[in-house]
Amino acid sequence: MLLALVLHAAAIEGMWEPSQLLSLGQPLRAAGYLDDPARLGDLRAAPLGAVVSLGGCTASFVSDLGLLVTNHHCVVGHLQRAQKEGEDLVETGFYAASRQEERSGGKGARVYVTQSFEDVTEKVAGKIPAKTGDVQRKALIDERTKKLVGDCEKPGGVRCRVASYYDGLRYTLVRQLELRDVRVVMAPPDAVGNYGDEIDNWHWPRHAGDFAFLRAYIGRDGKPADYSPDNVPYAPPQRLVVSPRGIEPGEFVMVAGYPGHTERWRTAAEVARDATTHLPAYLEDGTWALDMLESLAREMPSEAVKVNVPRSYLSNGVFNARWTLEAFRRTNVVGVANARDESLRRWVEADPARAAVYAPVLAELSARVSKHDAELERDRVMGWVGRSDLLSTARTLYRWSRERQKPDAKREIGYQSRDEARYAARLADMQASLSLEAERRLLERFLARALSLPAGHGATELVAWINAAGPAGSPEAMARAAVDRLLAAPALATAEGRLDWFKQGPAAFEASHDGFISLAVALRPYDDARELESKEDAGAYARLRPRYVEAMRLFDPTRVYPDANSTLRVSFGTVQGYHPRDAVSYAPQTTVHGIVEKMGPHPFDPPAALVSAIAAGKWGSYADPGLATVPVDFLSDLDITGGNSGSPTLDAKGRLVGLAFDGNVEGIASDYVFDAQMARTIHVDVRYLLWYLDAVTQADGLVRELGLEPTL
Amino acid sequence: MLLALVLHAAAIEGMWEPSQLLSLGQPLRAAGYLDDPARLGDLRAAPLGAVVSLGGCTASFVSDLGLLVTNHHCVVGHLQRAQKEGEDLVETGFYAASRQEERSGGKGARVYVTQSFEDVTEKVAGKIPAKTGDVQRKALIDERTKKLVGDCEKPGGVRCRVASYYDGLRYTLVRQLELRDVRVVMAPPDAVGNYGDEIDNWHWPRHAGDFAFLRAYIGRDGKPADYSPDNVPYAPPQRLVVSPRGIEPGEFVMVAGYPGHTERWRTAAEVARDATTHLPAYLEDGTWALDMLESLAREMPSEAVKVNVPRSYLSNGVFNARWTLEAFRRTNVVGVANARDESLRRWVEADPARAAVYAPVLAELSARVSKHDAELERDRVMGWVGRSDLLSTARTLYRWSRERQKPDAKREIGYQSRDEARYAARLADMQASLSLEAERRLLERFLARALSLPAGHGATELVAWINAAGPAGSPEAMARAAVDRLLAAPALATAEGRLDWFKQGPAAFEASHDGFISLAVALRPYDDARELESKEDAGAYARLRPRYVEAMRLFDPTRVYPDANSTLRVSFGTVQGYHPRDAVSYAPQTTVHGIVEKMGPHPFDPPAALVSAIAAGKWGSYADPGLATVPVDFLSDLDITGGNSGSPTLDAKGRLVGLAFDGNVEGIASDYVFDAQMARTIHVDVRYLLWYLDAVTQADGLVRELGLEPTL
């Protein structure tokens, strides 16, 4: 039917579970998928069987010898761990022309191959008496989860986890083969893979060659093994076929990968709280903090490098908050969510049987959102106070000293023997990013804010600690005095000091006169209370949210996919541009000429080899027929999120035509709601990847391993 | 012939003289013009007969009662002069529902109706002996010009000027009727007329309602007269017909108006000097000065308002320089100009007779460009030093004291009795924008630079003045000491002080110990030398440039239009968008919905009446059929420049469909070279104007005077 061909005008929202794809045959075919949907849902067949997680990123097997393709930005850590003294592989790029030249991506590098899903809802959440307290409910679920995971992992070589779907309506035990010898094969220079860097981040038109190659190795016995020169390439059960034809505007595409987290099942009250309270407040304080760090970097060049990382995090966070709020406004997210929940409420109340089950759930969920409202400002201020590196270190060290009193198995997760070495390393490493001047400015502002909180809703323990030593005065003066005291000679300001305190017992902390340490001790009642609160919340939500989702799905059967949870998902739709604003159109493809057009100071300084290859104008078989040149990146209306980075983009026959690597700024609120008109996924085109390998890297071996012949 | 229809894909570069239009019948028809080209060139017929100059802006008669339409930004001065105590007509807008409510646009407001052109080339440049010195040649041309203008203006009521075409290859005496009673009829609020302000300036997509109405009055005796309540509306010989149908993408449009200045006949060497020396140097120093003023405004709120105007000028200048250089790079302006001049040189040298005439011209022009090269840095530094308000005032006052020694008629232009009152007013007014701290920072930098100039090419007089009083030291230290001395107690820092010095004779200046005054006296030899140099340059160019243009036109007969010179011109082409960069397309029309889309803090704060009218969605007959809503602004590929502001945009039958009001940033280098791919003119659509009058202002009387019926 011809009409079906225009369906691609509207995106098909959803990050689908593989098991759902069988029932999506009609929309898949309508969007242009040409293969069997049943095959698409099969973990033991290509393409899904070839799609793996790197932990935070996605990759896919593209040869029988364990070759993986993913994003450049997913292998930055691998490159840093692989480089030798004096090298900067992120900057220069890397290509191993033979397997001998491949380098280990580091001890922590992993490839996770999903092997099976098992429904464990009953085992996790079944048979919990209704009158079980929420804290205890949370403890019970945690305990059952640990047991399931432990049993699953017993045979070794696999990693297991219990994933919650639909906010705990279903629990699934996911088992993944864990490959531990991961090597770097090829990565373009940063100026190619990350062309445009922070300026282009989230933006279209984009010209990043965000691709790289890894290879998974396995022991000669066929079992996962740590790095060893004796290991052999892992022979994946499935691999993707690369399509050098690429993809055209309007054509079907899908992405398979491991999206991390979305918030699409939040209640209207929760969305409204984020839209009207949390995000605006974060935007305000975050903007202040960002400005503070930027002024500091300008005024004191010695501090600039120290605050680089927090500044970049804040910059991302503030950017994200600003655009999310903008998208909320544009799409009236709060109004839509309110109308939806209000319809649900009326539907629930229209039937006494339904009302008996769900009305109390809706009421309690609604009440719970505002439960801590009176303390919001206190928690916000304490959150910013807690961003002081020295204070958070003092609190963590004090906690360590107490957890060490318990047998290892009884300790809180993160405070067990196996965590010790990692934390000690962090205590040493943090020196590079510790700026006492940033600490001072941050604390002066937020301690003063804490001192100005309304009575009855104050940061009692913090205020008491400040009052105990300082003379009374304006909040600003008292905060300054307190910060002077904290920063007089902080024991934790050196690596030695921190490592020394890592050995101390609770009594030493409690007797200490050091500012940060005594403050950490003073804050213990506050921290304990928050921890209990959080466990109680988690238990309550584990009880309430599944019922809310259940009611919503009964009321609105079109809401058919769960929030992202780092499990394997498939999104599908078509290649298409968008209209970001009045009179402006974005075409869905960029070209190599756009790279030259953007050239200028960093981050728009492509390597000379790329620039001359573009100037030479030899496109071989890699040109797009419509554009008559090599395309670089393209847009689709697919529904993805963080974790999907590196995901293979597949055409109507399941062949590799690109890699997803970013979303657009207009779709930045997709974690809450997917705006089909504006939200777009940005992919690197496989033809740019192939042309680059062939014409610039001259990586003939790699091109051949992908099943193709170099033509340039 | 069908092929002709696609001609609109390439812009037809040129700001044509009316007399040229007769010979442009073919390209005019090819572009879609439907009327008689002969009629189009006729000053005594519509449309050209209706197009007038406001001095710096263009306007056109749109009723038999002297009603004029122009840009909002062309009547800002009129509104300020028309407003009463406590009013802010720029902010609120203005509408006179009856003629009695119309207000005078001020004593200086003018409407110039072009009446005739007369070729006076022989009278201006003829019969000058070849051996006449350049300074004398300049004096002779000036004298002849003054005589022609004086004779022409003798009857009164007209303003005459001698305009130079093709760099003096032709001189034309232009006679214009000068109407002196100009009243404000209607202007939308600034937030409509100037929506987007500096942020949107030069940018597309644009949403400014940049239109306003004036009315010209005349004495009851039918002669131009100063404002008087007894005056009557001027009945223009011609008026434009308003087309409520508007215009569609791809259709023919033309603009008639008074473009001020272009540089398209500059030699390659001159273009190269601007591209590689002048503009980059200005960009560097201008960016420093802009940053300096911005820091100052941030650090000292009391200074912020004082430096507002220079900051805005600098901001525009720096913006302009940056984008001009960017466009130079994109279109390889220097390379193209070099190739053109090189071809010209070869053509000249290929024929001995031609070579005899033109080769010395090319050689001398080429040498002259670099004549002052050794002093470029000195002149640049002295230029920035001269931006000190107090120093430039001291120099001007000293010049006044000397000119006053001469009979009035013999004084330099600008220093005659009739200029006195205006200059006294400026001396008083300058207090509002005088920032001693800005003077300090500017002078400290550039005096230090002056002290560091290479020997033999230094600012001798300035350096001598600094050395005379200060102790030797580093340039920075000596500059600081000199500035301390200048700013110790400057006599010119108050209005009283300046006005007092305005009365003094040269001896008082020469005896003064005031810093700025004694520096002005010390700089007299420098100033006199520069003035002589500039007169000599002008005389030489008056001799050389016409021959260069003549040679170029013989060599390349396609170069058929003269540089803009504030005389009446016509440009034509079509409505079309453009591709500003890879994967981005700009549609040629914006809509009222784009106004809402852009809403935010100032300058994106449209008045509530406009917002509700858009929300109401009643478009009446003003909707564009393709867009199904009211269009706001549109783009064309027309070739215009500053001075064209307010120019009527006419359709294929010469009817008013919009007003030109800006160019786009990608075409900012159009003064040098017209980039047909990228340069666009921005117009306000007559349908937005009419809809606004009808739906928002409810100016029924005005709509009827335009020959239409209100429909909303």
Overview features:
15% strand, 27 helices, Thrombin, subunit H, 8-stranded antiparallel beta sheet, 712 residues, 4 domains, disordered N terminus, homodimer
List the helices and strands and how they pair.
The structure is a homodimer of 712-residue chains.
Chain A: E1 12-16, H1 25-31, H2 37-40, E2 51-53, E3 58-61, E4 67-70, H3 76-82, H4 89-92, E5 94-95, E6 103-104, E7 111-119, H5 121-125, H6 134-153, E8 158-165, E9 170-179, E10 181-187, H7 190-193, H8 197-200, E11 212-218, E12 232-233, E13 252-257, H9 268-299, H10 301-304, H11 308-331, H12 333-349, H13 352-369, H14 376-385, H15 389-403, H16 417-429, H17 436-451, H18 460-469, H19 475-486, H20 495-501, H21 506-511, H22 515-522, H23 524-555, E14 569-574, E15 578-581, E16 584-586, E17 589-591, H24 592-598, H25 608-616, E18 631-636, E19 648-650, E20 656-663, E21 681-685, H26 686-697, H27 700-705
Antiparallel strand pairs in A: 1-14, 2-3, 3-4, 4-11, 5-10, 6-10, 7-9, 8-9, 10-11, 11-12, 13-14, 13-19, 15-16, 17-18, 18-21, 19-20, 20-21
Helix pairs in contact in A: 6-23, 9-11, 9-12, 9-17, 13-23, 14-17, 15-22, 16-20, 17-19
Walk me through what this model shows.
2 copies of one chain form a homodimer. The model of chain A is unreliable at 1-10 (pLDDT under 50). Chain A has 27 helices and 21 strands. Chain A is α+β, with helices and mostly antiparallel strands and 712 residues long. The first copy, chain A, has an 8-stranded antiparallel beta sheet with strand order 1-14-13-19-20-21-18-17. In chain A, strands 2, 3, 4, 5, 6, 10, 11 and 12 form an 8-stranded antiparallel beta sheet that branches. Chain A has a 3-stranded antiparallel beta sheet with strand order 7-9-8. Helix content of chain A is 44%, strand content 15%. In chain A, strand 19 (648-650) and strand 20 form a beta hairpin. Chain A folds into 4 domains: 2-110 and 180-263 and 562-705, Thrombin, subunit H; 111-179 and 533-555, no CATH class; 266-371, no CATH class; 375-522, no CATH class. The two termini of chain A are 42 Å apart. In chain A, helix 9 (268-299) runs antiparallel to helix 12 (333-349). Strand 16 of chain A pairs antiparallel with strand 15 (584-586) of chain B.
